[in-house]
Amino acid sequence: HAVILSCGGHVFDSGLGPMxxxxxxxxxxxxxxxxxxxxxxxxxxxxxGTTVTARESELTNGSYCITEETGCLINDAIxxxxxxxxxxxxxxxxxxxxxxxxxxxxxxxxxxxxxxVPLSVHPAIGADAFALHPAxxxxxxGAASMVDFRLLAGMMAQSSHGxxxxxxxxxxxxxxxxxxxxxxxxxxxxxxxxxxxxxDPAA
Length: 203
Fold this sequence. Notes:
Elements: E1 3-7, H1 10-13, H2 17-25, E2 31-35, H3 36-48, H4 68-83, H5 88-97, H6 108-115, E3 119-122, H7 138-157, E4 163-167, H8 172-186, E5 195-199
Parallel strand pairs: 1-2, 1-4, 2-3, 4-5
Helix pairs in contact: 2-6, 3-4, 4-5, 4-7, 5-6, 7-8
């Protein structure tokens, strides 16, 4: 049965990425969906082994949560992947897989790519810092995001009698998951016996 895990950024801030990697390696998780913030923090872990903590002082100089290395890698990967009709998850995963970063074994995206586990990313333009980087192109981001949503809808279409667990996203992922289920049913797919859980204090 399908076991789909969706995550917001605090999952990675809390250091749970390596545990999720092990669940992917054990073939327990069959699909994943991340917010843009979660994806960005996973890339930071791959790059440096930790996430970037925003400082209040950065609000005064326009650098809040923005890092050159992370933004450049993410947007370069998305821009290239869009030309290949890849989703964001595959674009980032392939870029990480072909890198020599020291912490790839702690990256959920890299691990999912390595084990062939489908992973979609659902950004919120204006809220996710990587979209403010000079290398960001709305056309590429939009095209790749559409492929991500179709991938998630496909996962949900095959989720009957499975489990969907949403952690640390009280707004974006619950809505995206509901829309993905609706899209699958709109195309005539039957989804029944699905167990879902939202684990978030704000939900």
